[in-house]
Amino acid sequence: MAPDVLDQLRPTFVSFISGGGAAPLSPGGFLALHAFALPVPVAVALHEQLGRARVAARITQLSTRVKQGLSRIPGVTVHTPGDAELSAGITCFSVAGHAHQQVVDDAATRRVRLSTSTYTRIGTAVMNTSAEIDTALNSLADLAR
Fold this sequence. Notes:
By secondary structure, the protein is an alpha+beta fold. The protein has five helices and four strands; from the N terminus they run αααββαββα.
């Protein structure tokens, strides 16, 4: 988009991004679709190569490790059901005495990526290692002390 015409455009939807440039024209302030669309064929090929059952089993294994590890940390409450049949790769939790964004920010300083909405969230994916899960759990245990 030509910078000299941006001030003439009006969004047709609510954006949560303010400031200059074209960012406020993005629906809801989300990143552009192409940022996600380009890696999709590679991810699909990997899943096809590994097979759906192996991918699901690995995510379940790592997610179970997260839930069990979080449940052993004093001051941490796991909100995601422990039963693998009732949960998937995202585990929601709270750390007593800490706002969810504070937990996310503290983890980021330790190179651990979490997210937040209603609760703090950690996601597991087929490419994560057990060591990465342990690093995240140790980071959260340090914060909970």
